[in-house]
């Protein structure tokens, strides 16, 4: 058994342990993302780290997400169609999704958001990285992603946010 599959089974076995744990995993895999997005919007208006640079922070997040989730992830999926774990193995899966598994769009989306936030506030960046980690680990446990899908999505997301930050500093902030 590959290392990727062993890690997948470790997390996926958690989903079948109890109904309560399964529901918690389902919440983090499917619904927590909306709280994270809403919290980001709220931070733009209430956090001193963001209020003065609201448009730069919002722009960095939006462009990072667009490049990672809407661009790079979709291009990779066009050329490489990896079936989801529940399509290949008889496992516990809490929901289905028919889109290619590799790379994880959720990992690309939420890690690009976390990195964009990190560039504006290290303190809030930690919160967003922790939130992104909960989301992607729950998606492994829910049976819809392999760890390598997640890792590739994380790399895409971090790279996209770094790229946006680089150009933002070069052309908009003069740093």
Description of the molecule:
It is a single chain. With 175 residues, the chain is mostly helical. It has a single domain, classed as Phosphatidic acid phosphatase type 2/haloperoxidase (Vanadium-containing Chloroperoxidase, domain 1), CATH 1.20.144. It has helices at residues 3-15, 19-30, 32-46, 48-51, 54-79, 85-88, 105-120, 122-141, 147-173. The chain is globular.
List the helices and strands and how they pair.
Blueprint: H1 3-15, H2 19-30, H3 32-46, H4 48-51, H5 54-79, H6 85-88, H7 105-120, H8 122-141, H9 147-173
Helix pairs in contact: 1-8, 2-8, 5-7, 5-9, 7-8, 7-9
Number of helical elements: 9
CATH H-level superfamily: Phosphatidic acid phosphatase type 2/haloperoxidase
Overall geometry: globular
Class by alpha and beta content: mainly alpha
Distance between the termini: 48 Å
Name the poorly predicted regions: none
Output mean pLDDT. 88
Secondary-structure element order, as H and E?
A: HHHHHHHHH
CATH-derived architecture: Up-down Bundle
**Could you tell me the strand content as a percent range?**
under 5%
Largest sheet: none
Short description:
The chain is mainly α. The protein contains 9 helices and no strands.
């Amino acid at each position: 058994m590959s290392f990727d599959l062993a890690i997948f089974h470790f997390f996926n076995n958690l989903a079948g342990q109890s109904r309560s744990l399964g529901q918690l995993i389902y919440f983090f895999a499917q619904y927590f993302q909306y709280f994270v997005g809403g919290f980001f919007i709220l931070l733009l208006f209430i956090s001193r780290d963001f209020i003065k640079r609201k448009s730069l922070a919002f722009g960095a997040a939006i462009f990072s997400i667009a490049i990672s989730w809407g661009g790079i992830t979709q291009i990779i999926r066009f050329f490489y169609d990896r079936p989801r774990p529940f399509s290949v193995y008889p496992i516990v899966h809490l929901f289905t999704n028919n889109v290619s598994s590799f790379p994880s769009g959720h990992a690309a989306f939420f890690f690009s958001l976390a990195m964009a936030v990190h560039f504006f506030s290290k303190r809030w960046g930690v919160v967003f990285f922790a939130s992104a980690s909960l989301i992607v680990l729950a998606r492994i446990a829910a049976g819809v992603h392999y760890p390598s899908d997640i890792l590739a999505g994380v790399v895409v997301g971090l790279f996209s946010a770094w790229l946006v930050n680089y150009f933002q500093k070069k052309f908009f902030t003069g740093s």
